[in-house]
Amino acid sequence: MINIACLHAHYSNIAYIERAFYSHTVQLEHYVDPGVMWHVQHHQIEQAKMQVGKQLQWIATTKPDVLVVTCTNYIALMDASLSVPMIEIDVPFFKLLKQQKLPLTLFFTNPQTVEGTLKRLYTYVTREVEVVVIPKAFDLLMAGDKVAHDKIVMAALQDAPKNAAVAQLSMVDAAEKNGLLHPLMPLVEAILNNE
């Protein structure tokens, strides 16, 4: 059985990971700290970076088989090397996006993640990517109103082009209902195959 430790920025991400691994024999351990996002939103990057480093080191002491970081902001803040294998949720996703032949539209709800995500994405994808930030949704999610968040995201994705994808785990439900690419699609295989 694979022991997977997951570091999330928000509690709502737990359900997505649990659902993705429902039919697999794995042990999931979830660690959540929405406070890091507060520091990022208030431009306290060094404090956020220190906290993420501490979290990763602390989680690594539990000796998981793999540590999955599900937040693109967390990934952008990381600079620690760990004693356990780690998968950043966006790496398998970027590899999936690289395979797409059409121009790409990438939806976000958190404007703070756009720059870091695109910087990392462009190491995999060489063509231009159109970015659409869905306003107000992320604030609702961070305030604990996932229902209102999902409603706004669903409405924004209804007319999305076929070549669209969502960049954040919190948008997966709406992406699946609209047949769009999302970060969970390649994650399970990447973890199970130790990629």
Largest sheet geometry: 4 strands, parallel
- Residue-averaged pLDDT: 89
Instruction: Label the structural class.
Output: alpha/beta
Q: Judging from the principal axes of the Cα atoms, what is the shape?
A: globular
Identify low-pLDDT runs: none
Strand content: 15-25%
Reading the helices and strands in chain order gives EHEHHEHEHEHEHHEHH
Helix content: 40-55%
User: What is the CA-atom radius of gyration, in angstroms?
Assistant: 16 Å
CATH class of the largest domain: Alpha Beta
- Terminal residue distance: 17 Å
Q: Report the strand count.
A: 7
| Topology-level CATH name of the largest domain | Rossmann fold
Number of domains: 2
Side by side, the strands of the main sheet go 2-1-3-4
* CATH A-level architecture of the largest domain: 3-Layer(aba) Sandwich
Count of discrete alpha- or pi-helical segments spanning 4 or more residues: 10
Summarize it.
The protein is an alpha/beta fold and about 200 residues long. It is about 45% helix and about 15% strand. It has a 4-stranded parallel β-sheet with strand order 2-1-3-4, sandwiched between helices. It has a 3-stranded parallel β-sheet with strand order 6-5-7, with no helix packed on it.
